[in-house]
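so im writing up the methods section and need the SUKH-3 immunity protein record in one place, dumping it here so i stop losing it
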Amino acid sequence: MKATQIPPHAGTVTPADLLRMAALYLRRHGWHQGAYYADPDHLTPPACAAGAIGMASTGHQVENFLQLDQLDDDHHADTLAALAAFVDYLDTHEPVFYVDEDGFLVDEHGWPFSWNDDPARTAEQVVTALEAAADEWDSLHTTGGENR
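--- predicted struct ---
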């Protein structure tokens, strides 16, 4: 192999890998609330938890993870799997419940956006939760470092 060649990919990227890469992205580039990214014109802007997962999966900003035209099939599936693993972790360990203006309980089950945007949330909590979600995914899906 020549020094300029990109080495072949040696394995499958798991949701746990993407969650750890998202945590690393936040440590390096910063955390944000209120939108996926702090600056849409910046190559590596501060991001929310979901935005960091998108950056880890695709290497660029993604404005809507549910729109298939913004992601190719592999990135779409990988991104949604990592988001689902993160949501599963949050639902188990840090469920979000709010009461609306009419006094009804609103269950924010299913997506990490409200959790990320809680005014009391800190960057360290988000990074720690991403890493813990990755560890949990690994514990449920791998045996001795190998996928089950």
